[in-house]
Amino acid sequence: MANSPQAKKRAKQAEKRRNHNASLRSMVRTYIKNVVKAIEAKDLEKAQSAYTAAVPVIDRMADKGIIPKNKAARHKSRLNAHIKAMATAA
Fold first, then answer.
1. What domains sit in the chain, N to C, each tagged with a CATH number?
2. Is the pTM of this model over 0.70?
3. By CB neighbour count within 10 A (0-12 exposed, 13-18 middle, 19+ buried), where does 57 fall?
4. What percentage of the chain reaches a pLDDT higher than 90?
5. 3-state secondary structure 12-40
6. Which stretches does UniProt call biased (Basic residues) (predicted)?
7. Distance CA 2, CA 41 (A)
8. In the predicted model, is pLDDT for residue 68 greater than 80?
């Protein structure tokens, strides 16, 4: 455990930041899950609106470094591909 006052403060700050980042990561997962649920329910309108809401959140978290940029791009690409496939099937 940290002994010096500076190390104690840094440990406290790191824990606070870790909790904040975990909350943001959870938020991204929730937005992605909303899109996936709409896709599985075969609800095109709901899927499109959920995707439109999720994209800025995913991008913002990638910019902050909460998730890697490639992971953000991969999620957006795959979700969009599913929605486009639904649209063409309908």
1. 13-89 (1.20.58.110)
2. yes
3. middle
4. 94
5. HHHHHHHHHHHHHHHHHHHHHHHHHHHHH
6. 7-20
7. 51
8. yes
